[in-house]
Amino acid sequence: MSDPLRLIGTSGASGAYQPPRPQPQAGAGDGASFKDVLMANIKQVNELQQDASRAIENLQTGQGGDLESVILATQKADTAFRALQAVRNRVIEAYDELRQIRV
Predict the structure, then answer these.
(1) What percent of the chain has pLDDT over 90?
(2) Of 42, 2, 46, whose CA–CA distance to 20 is shortest?
(3) What is the pLDDT of residues 78-94, one digit of tens each?
(4) Where are the domains of the chain?
(5) Quick one: pLDDT at residue 26?
(6) How many CB atoms lie under 10 A from the CB of residue 45?
(7) 16 and 24 in contact (C-beta within 8 Å)?
(8) 73 and 52 Cβ atoms separated by less than 8 Å
(9) What is the DSSP letter of 103?
């Protein structure tokens, strides 16, 4: 029978219960920070919006491109922007909730 709480057979000078030390989790600290991920997504949304603007300008000036590619580029930019806006709204909601916690 194993003792997951280590209550039986404690080793130590006083013989008192000693809580187990936390084991480092695999992958902890290996990933990118929230800030890095957020900044990368902001840059990607900015690039998509610039691509959509360029596609619109090219269509207006007659430099090439068709209407379908312009619509596709603007839809991509719009969808990415709405997703980023949803993340922003969730972060603001979480911040407001944390502000209301009494210490």
Answers:
(1) 59
(2) 2
(3) 999 999 999 999 999 99
(4) 34-99
(5) 54
(6) 19
(7) no
(8) yes
(9) -
Give the list of residues 6+ apart from residue 41 with CB closer than 8 angstroms, or none: 84, 87
The answer for residues whose C-beta is within 8 angstroms of residue 34's C-beta and 6 or more apart is: none
Question: Greater confidence, 65 or 58?
Answer: 58
Query: Which residue matches tokens 């936390």?
Result: 22
Can you tell me the distance from the alpha carbon of 66 to that of 69, in angstroms, rounded to the nearest whole number?
Answer: 6
| DSSP H stretches of helix in 6-103 | 34-61, 67-99
| Stated pTM of the model | 0.64
9 touches 15 (CB < 8 A): no
d(CA 73, CA 67): 10
Structure-token match 């187990």, residue found: 20
